[in-house]
Each structure stands twice: as structure tokens, then as C-alpha cells.
Amino acid sequence: MSDLVESAPILPSPTLAEPRGRVPATLADDAQLIAACRRGEARAMEMLYHQYKRRVFGMAHRIVGASDAEEVAQEVFVRVFRALANFRGDSALSTWIYRLTVNASLSHLAKRGRRQEVGDEALTELPAPPTTERDSALAARIEAALGRLPAGYRAILVLHDVEGLSHEECAAILECRVGTCKSQLHKARAKMRELLGPGVREERA
Questions:
Q1: Given pLDDT bands bounded at 50, 70 and 90, which one contains residue 20?
Q2: Between the CA of residue 52 and those of 57, 79, 188, what are the distances in Å?
Q3: Whole-model pTM?
Q4: Rounded-to-integer distance, Cα 169 and Cα 91, Å
Q5: Are 164 and 155 contacting, i.e. CB atoms less than 8 angstroms apart?
Q6: Contact in structure between 141 and 200 (CB atoms under 8 Å)
Q7: What CATH number should be reported for the domain holding residue 160?
Q8: Is residue 12 part of a domain?
Q9: How many structural domains compose the chain?
């Protein structure tokens, strides 16, 4: 029973993000939207932006912090529209955009130090940004603890426990092995529990 408790997610989506369904996207829909964007159709570009803006901003917010999230989100969409011509469709459009979001977020955090790429070892090495204090019980504790995690740990927690992506999707976004994703998620959850302290389970009960 203790193993089940230790392996359970500690970042329920309603705590840190508004509940929302997964972005519906078939290959046909993606292909049509991408083709229209490549033709320079403003309406298609606006549709793509509005389809992903909340999730891109939310992901960036939880990785880089509130003060830099807007800047990173804008950078992500600049990269998206610049790179659409070279998008080959090897992965879903959503996976590609989330990968750009994570990479842009981690690159933003790495600007102050040496540049690091997402990989099997780099997930634990990037520093955490300053945390912001909030006067709101458990939600504030969870968000503050999230902000104290190394950025790579934060990324895998946000992708899997907040956004609800599978291990396979997380691995595709982070461009690492599925086994690495599982291992890093386990370590990230353990670190979160350490930061939150033993009382978190009682508060959530």
C-alpha cells in the first residue's frame, strides 16, 4: 500500500491549473491547419495561436515563473510560426509545440549560466527560479515547492501530473527515453514530498 501512495501524483490538475480537456487534433486537422499557416492565412495562424495559447502559457508559467511566462510564451509562438515550414509531421503538432515550450522555458532559465540541452542527465541540472510567496494554504505550498524544484524536475511534473500527458508523450517532448521519464518523474515526486513535508497527505485527505 505504501508503494501505491509513494507513486501517486502529488500535483492534481485542479490545484495548479484549470480543468480542461486534451486538445483534439487528428492528423488530418493538423495537416490542414499547418498547410493554411504555411500559406500565410491569418485566420489559420490565429486559430493555432488560440488553440494552444493557454496551455503554452500555463506550462511556461510553471517552469519559469509568473514574471517571465509571458515573454517565454511569446518566444514559443515566434518559434512555432518560423519553424512550421520545416515541420515534418513525425510527431503530433501538439507534441511539437509542447517540446518547443519546454525547450524555450529551459533555455530561458539557462541564460544566466551555461547553456544546457534537455537530455537524460540535464533534467536535474538547471537551477530553479526565485519563488513567490502566496497566502493560500496547501495550494501555495505546492506551488512554492514546485518553484524550488530543479527546472527539469518541474518540467516532467508539469507535463505528466498537471497536463496529464503519458510517459510516451513526455518522452517525445523531452526527447529522452521512456524509462528516463519514469525515473525522473519518480525522483521529482520524491523531491516534492520532501519539500512539502509529511503533513501534505493529511491536508489533502
A1: very low
A2: 8, 14, 26
A3: 0.68
A4: 10
A5: no
A6: yes
A7: 1.10.1740.10
A8: no
A9: 1
Residue 37 counted as domain residue: yes
Predicted confidence band at 13 (pLDDT cuts at 50, 70, 90)?
A: very low
The answer to whether residue 50 sits within a structural domain is yes
User: Would you state the cell numbers that stand for residue 59, as one nine-digit string?
Assistant: 506550462
- Residue pLDDT, tens place only, 81-116: 999 989 988 888 999 999 999 999 999 988 744 344
Q: Which three cell numbers stand for residue 201?
A: 497527505
73 is in which domain, residue-wise?
24-204
Task: List Cβ<8 Å contacts ≥24 apart for 187-190.
Answer: 187/124, 187/153, 188/149, 188/153, 188/154, 188/156, 188/157, 189/6, 189/7, 189/9, 189/10, 189/157, 189/161, 190/6
Residues 6 or more apart from 72 whose CB is under 8 A from it?
60, 63, 64, 101, 104, 105, 108
* 195 CB-contact burial (10 Å; exposed 0-12 / middle 13-18 / buried 19+): middle
Whether 7 is covered by a domain: the verdict is no
> What's at 95, amino acid-wise?
T
Q: Is the dihedral of CA 96, 185, 158, 155 positive or negative?
A: negative
Q: Which grid coordinates belong to 156?
A: 516532467
105: closest CA among 157, 171, 154? 154
With cell 502529488, the residue in question is: 10
Task: Find all residues with CB under 8 Å of 90, minimum gap 6, and list them.
Answer: none
The helix, strand and coil proportions of the chain, stated in percent and rounded to the nearest 5, come to 70, 0, 30
